[in-house]
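Structure (tokenized):
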């Protein structure tokens, strides 16, 4: 989990993703559509991707489920949780609070 904390520190939005995952693409596109400053780690494209995937699974209990979204260093969850926040009108305020967007 220490590696995850390091990668999410001082970043408003961090998405752990897989480049071939359609739900990851959807969430990245949604957050980007607000003009959010996001950092994306494609775990199937980075050298320590398997290690990070294991750390995420241990921390979240969600083995192999992507994306995993952190906003303001807090794990929000996956696509379902992010979409639920969006539908409830809570995603944009959360992004503003994290200073990922300034609108």
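Design, position by position:
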């Amino acid at each position: 989990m220490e590696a995850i904390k390091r990668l999410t520190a001082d970043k408003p939005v961090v998405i752990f993703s897989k480049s071939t995952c359609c739900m990851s693409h959807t969430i990245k596109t949604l957050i980007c559509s607000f003009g959010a400053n996001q950092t994306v780690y494609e775990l199937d494209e980075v050298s320590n991707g398997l290690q990070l995937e294991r750390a995420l699974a241990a921390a979240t209990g969600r083995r192999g489920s992507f994306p995993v979204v952190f906003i303001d260093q807090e794990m929000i969850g996956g696509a379902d949780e992010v979409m639920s926040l969006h539908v409830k009108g809570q995603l944009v305020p959360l992004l503003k609070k994290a200073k990922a967007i300034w609108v």
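Reviewer-requested clarification: The chain is about 45% helix and 15% strand. Strands lie at 13-17, 38-42, 68-71, 74-77.
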